[in-house]
Amino acid sequence: HLSDVDRKRMARYGLLPLVTDDAMRLFDTATATDLPVLAVTRWDTAALRGRGDQMPALLRELIPATRRAPQAAPVGASLTQRLAGVPEADRDRTLIDLVRQQVAAVLGHTDAQSVPADRSFQELGFDSLTAVELRNQLNAATGLRLPTTLIFDHPSPAAIAALLRDELTVEEPAAADLMTDLDRLEELVRSAPADDETRSRIEARLRRLLDLHQGAARQAAEQELDSASDEELFALVDGLD
Question: How far apart (Å, rounded) are the C-alpha atoms in residues 236 and 10?
């Protein structure tokens, strides 16, 4: 018997179930032909076309895929750009959420929150077919070429997220870009209306930005102190004399 996960996977691939009587009739018809290889199937052509480049090669001549608009940037690039805009401390959570979303889609769950990050894929009900499908989904989402043994080498969503963190190259925003944005902000402030209400609102926003910047600097300094060796701390104290 097919499980609910099996049925949902078949639907994503464009395979429709056959009523038993129809299946047996088609089987009899197939065995009466001289053709060496036949597949008794029903296809959801709309679902197949929706797979685009992921449509199985054997079906591309039968059901041409619809043309997709060219992407402005590779998928992997958009993910790394997204990660670059996330504080480093939150990037692991972003990647874990990405993996959980793909796992939920493969298993047919509607909510990624139902996928525990530290639960093994075996406990989640994965088999060889769902393992390959998850690998393919993550390849498409990240732009990486992950191995077919992905869930066996990295047996939980959290483990795969850690792998993605190592494999993806996140380019930090350049300081020069930030200074350019600050220059533009300065020009906007100079040209802002001169009424008291506008000046007060601008001042409040700028003070919040300054507090944010100073808070980040303090946090970085505290982390540096926490990780400093005894020799480095003594050298710092000596430098204060």
Answer: 65
Alpha carbon distance 102, 112 (integer Å)? 8
- Between vectors from CA 10 to CA 153 and to CA 149, what angle results, nearest 5°? 10
In a shared domain, residues 187 and 204: yes
pLDDT reported for residue 152: 94
Q: What angle do CA 232, 237, 238 make, to 5 degrees?
A: 95
For the chain, how big is the Rg over CA atoms in Å? 27
Query: Whole-model pTM?
Result: 0.55
User: Whole domain around residue 187: which residue ranges?
Assistant: 175-240
Four-residue CA torsion sign, 16, 121, 154, 85: positive
CA distances from 77 to 35, 83, 143, 151, 199 (A): 47, 10, 8, 24, 39
Decide if pLDDT at 172 tops 80. Answer: no
Instruction: Read off φ and ψ for residue 9, nearest 5 degrees.
Output: -65, -45
Helices first, then strands: H and E counts in the chain: 12, 2
For residue 126, count other CB atoms closer than 10 A to its CB.
20
Same domain, 79 and 156: yes
Residue 70 lies in a domain: no
Tokens of 112: 């990624």
